[in-house]
Write a structure and sequence with these properties.
The complex is a heterodimer of chains A (about 150) and B (about 325).
Chain A lengths: L29 H23 L3 H4 L4 H21 L7 H20 L15 E4 L7 E4 L6
Helix pairs in contact in A: 1-3
Chain B lengths: L2 H5 L24 H36 L1 H7 L5 H26 L3 H32 L10 H7 L25 H7 L6 E4 L14 E3 L7 E4 L2 H46 L9 H25 L3
Antiparallel strand pairs in B: 1-3, 2-3
Helix pairs in contact in B: 2-8, 2-9, 3-8, 4-5, 4-9, 5-8, 7-8, 8-9
């Protein structure tokens, strides 16, 4: 219960708080931070190497390198969030908040997948014409007068 | 007890701890751990809004990339991977120094914290300097998508590189070079571009005829002659517009990220100044930790930006 005189050690005041409290947030040692940085440097090198090394010829799918690049980026981001931002030692509420943003992102991308089911209209009023330059084979021409 | 002692007491009159970095419990919290958790969850709430902010932009970029893949493959070659990699390295190093600074503050090491935060600010300035070089090159080559300045043909003409290098040195736009074969999409249209063809119209053009792409000139014979752009020029215009889209999103996203970096510099600078003044606001390590969370998030955004924009293959 809150009492008039705060600052007593029974309330967990002081530099480190109460280590037995379920809300206590431990801080990572310096060595962990340096190890994480080394890991991130290695992942950065891998990212650039993967760019030079074209895997789509091996798998036959043009999006292979993108997917791999995104997986590597996700790993790097997880490393930063887990160690540098200390989510590893944080409370469950913090985990929830950290996860919520990315869950929202997954929802957004999932919902916008419906673009695959519709024909792409370049600009308002422009007509689709066949084209060799677009993935769907469809380009557009400007609106004709009198429409 | 002198007046000076009265100033530096904790809440409720309790004496402060002797170590710098000691936290003070505010009266609305049960204990210090609950207070810390509250600060962190509050900061994460803000970071969730930032995820939404950048996420929508990433989605727009991804949509256009899938739909205009060929143009994006061509246009992204104007971005220099060396600068992008250096930027990523600089930001990751600044993330490390930020985390170490928070750690130093938690252990009451004031001078170490100020030094590490200064290094973080230095890295941030380095990032902005590299961005300035990149942006200057792009604007001078005619790749900034604003107003009438976008000139894709000129940019293609100025880029002369060998297979793996990129023409992003300062003042590259001053060098005139031949267009390499790699730019197949646009060169097909650029070579022998016939910007106008004459078409004879029988009778007068209809009312409301769209004259944006044609010029109507009087001619002898059966009515006015119209000049229409050739198919090649039309194709090139479409490609240039799609490249313009790429650069719009590129400048929007990296520009907004750059603004976030500048805000981060201001925040970290404020913490440095307060720490130098031994201000009581930074007696608690939480402000540093919260600014650290913000800074790590800025780094995460760049971690995703870099491969998406620079490393398209």
């Amino acid at each position: 219960m809150a009492s008039a005189a705060h600052g007593h050690s029974e309330h967990g005041n002081g530099l480190h708080g109460d280590p037995n409290s379920p809300f206590h947030i431990k801080h990572p040692p310096k060595l962990d931070l340096w190890k994480n940085f080394s890991f991130l440097m290695v992942m950065l090198v891998i990212t650039v190497v993967m760019y030079k090394w074209d895997l789509s010829r091996a798998t036959g799918w043009v999006g292979t390198n993108v997917v791999i690049a995104m997986i590597i980026s996700a790993i790097k981001a997880t490393a930063v969030i887990w160690i540098f931002m200390n989510v590893r030692n944080s409370t469950r509420l913090t985990w929830l908040w950290a996860a919520l943003g990315f869950i929202w992102l997954i929802l957004l991308v999932g919902i916008f997948m419906d673009y695959q089911t519709r024909a792409w209209i370049d600009q308002t009023g422009w007509t689709a014409i066949p084209s060799e330059y677009e993935i769907g084979g469809v380009s557009s021409r400007p609106p004709t007068a009198g429409k | 007890m002198s007046l000076a002692n009265l100033e530096r007491t904790g809440v409720g009159g309790a004496p402060l701890g002797e170590q710098w970095g000691e936290q003070r419990l505010s009266h609305q919290f049960e204990d210090i751990d609950q207070q810390n958790e509250c600060y962190i969850v509050g900061m994460w709430s803000f970071l969730v809004t930032e995820v939404m902010f950048f996420g929508a932009l990433f989605l727009a970029y991804s949509l256009y990339r899938v739909l205009y893949f060929n143009t994006y493959m061509e246009a992204h070659q104007f971005l220099d991977i060396r600068w992008g990699t250096l930027n990523t390295f600089v930001l990751l190093a600044s993330s490390l120094s930020m985390a170490l600074a928070v750690d130093a503050h938690q252990h009451g090491q004031r001078k170490a914290m100020i030094g590490l935060l200064s290094f973080t600010v230095l890295c941030a300035f380095g990032f902005m300097a590299i961005k300035t070089v990149e942006y200057t090159n792009k604007i001078n080559e005619g790749l900034f998508p604003g107003g009438n300045k976008f000139d894709y043909a000129r940019a293609l003409h100025l880029h002369h590189k060998e297979a793996e290098e990129r023409a992003n040195e300062p003042f590259a736009f001053l060098n005139e070079h031949e267009l390499p074969d790699r730019y197949k999409l646009a060169t097909r249209a650029l070579e022998e571009v016939d910007h106008e063809q004459s078409v004879r119209f029988v009778g007068a053009p209809r009312e409301g005829f769209d004259t944006r792409l044609t010029t109507v000139t009087p001619s002898e014979g059966n009515g006015p002659a119209l000049a229409v752009p050739s198919e090649a020029a039309n194709t090139f215009e479409r490609e240039a517009n799609k490249a313009r889209l790429f650069f719009s999103i590129y400048f929007a996203m990296t520009g907004l990220h750059g603004i976030h970096v500048i805000v981060g510099i201001v925040l970290i600078g404020a913490i440095i100044v307060l720490a130098l003044m031994k201000h009581r606001a930074v007696d608690d390590y939480m402000p540093t930790e919260m600014v650290g969370l913000y800074w790590h998030f800025v780094d995460v955004v760049w971690i995703f930006l870099f491969p998406l924009m620079y490393l398209i293959s």
